[in-house]
Design a protein that fits this description.
Radius of gyration: 16 Å
Number of helices: 3
Largest sheet: none
Distance between the termini: 10 Å
Shape: elongated
């Protein structure tokens, strides 16, 4: 029972962090479009843009894995 609560907490927090990150990324896209700039400039370079994509990918993987683990138990 204690493991299931821990998995539930991880699932809720990772999903919330994913949605917040997706909303921020979407807002950055709107800003970039309106001010005719690029995501590289907003993020501070190509490296940080890739790190932003990596963060979104890792949060998606964590949410998916914790969701699968939660519903298989």
């Amino acid at each position: 029972m204690k493991k299931k609560i821990g998995t539930l907490v991880i699932f809720i927090f990772s999903t919330a962090a994913l949605f917040i990150s997706l909303k921020l990324f979407y807002n950055m896209g709107i800003f970039v479009d309106e001010f005719n700039t690029s995501p590289d400039v907003v993020n501070g370079g190509e490296f940080w843009l890739m790190m932003d994509w990596l963060r979104l990918g890792l949060l998606a993987v964590i949410s998916l894995v914790s969701g699968i683990k939660l519903f298989r138990e």
